[in-house]
Amino acid sequence: MIPVSQPFLPPKEEYDQYISQLWDTKWLTNQGIYVQQLESELKKYCQCSSLFYVNNGTSALHLAIKGLGIKNEVITTPFSFVATTTSILWENCTPVFVDIDPTTFCIDAEKIEAAITDRTEAILATHVFGIPCEVERIEEIARKHNLLVIYDAAHAFGVQYKGRSLLTYGDLSTISFHATKLFHTVEGGAIMNNTENSELDQTIQLMRNFGFVGENYAMIGLNGKNSEFHAAMGLCNLKYVDALIEKRKELSEAYRKLLGDKRETPDIMKSTKYNYAYYPILFETEGLLLQVQKNLRDNQIASRRYFYPSLNTLPYVTSAHKCPVSEDISRRILCLPLYSDLTLEEVEWIAAIVKEGKKAVIV
């Protein structure tokens, strides 16, 4: 079986060297040495001055919303993983969906202003598949209307835009280090504070640890900490990230060459150094997608309808916002297998099945 994604694992002996020390120190959690070291190294790699390592990307979103004190309407994208929307709802805020750009699949910045009301407090946008949002236009709108900006950058590790890490845009950026991601710590995530507001740093730090200071509770919080075991995996994996991106680039270019039509994949903004996090392909119809997915499955090849459905259609979202572009694309998009151990021969096989399935349905 070829999975749609597969975690990279470093040489076992490298991880063992870290783990053996934990048996000596017995410091397994609560901001241990490895967590502190990982945060320091991630700051350097991501070119940011303030980074907080947490237990997953969803906690990062919760902490970002709560930490900024957002309580009302949040303009957001309907084309993202479900955690983007549920984090807004979980914090008792109201998601206001703005449709997506049909070429990048990110939120359409030119439609944001029309959705702003006197209750709007923030914009929460996703760098879909690691593709940058229109960050400059979004910043311009946010400044004009005094709005906060959070980027769900779950897919954007290693991406640079105009020479700087994509994670340094927005007031806060959040990221996932789940096992399926390009860089992972098995489970994990992080929040980057780009505001240079030290009070916000302190708030996030407190909220990550139950709001606990010494023997006193300063504010509401949750258990957003991560363990030394997870941090050790991150320290092992970080040195391999650039090589993993190069391998994914090679595989993605092979897919592009074999499958041909550039219009079937999203556009990436100029001045972007991309990380090749996923290989999504857009089919002409949902029926065609389902047929190709079945053909892949019959050949023991996994694929994923990522993202489906469009989040504005979730049954527990009460605010109705039509997003025809997102609704259409979510029905026609499929992510093909992409991971570092995938071979060029396997890519050729997958591409052949995709092309044959398309041909059969079209004819």
Automatic annotation (TrEMBL):
Record key words, sorted: Aminotransferase, Pyridoxal phosphate, Transferase
GO biological process: polysaccharide biosynthetic process
Active-site residues, record numbering mapped to chain: K181 (proton acceptor)
Modified residues (N6-(pyridoxal phosphate)lysine): K181
Pfam families for the chain: DegT_DnrJ_EryC1
A Gene Ontology molecular function term of the record: pyridoxal phosphate binding
Family, per entry: Belongs to the DegT/DnrJ/EryC1 family.
Record protein name field: Aminotransferase DegT
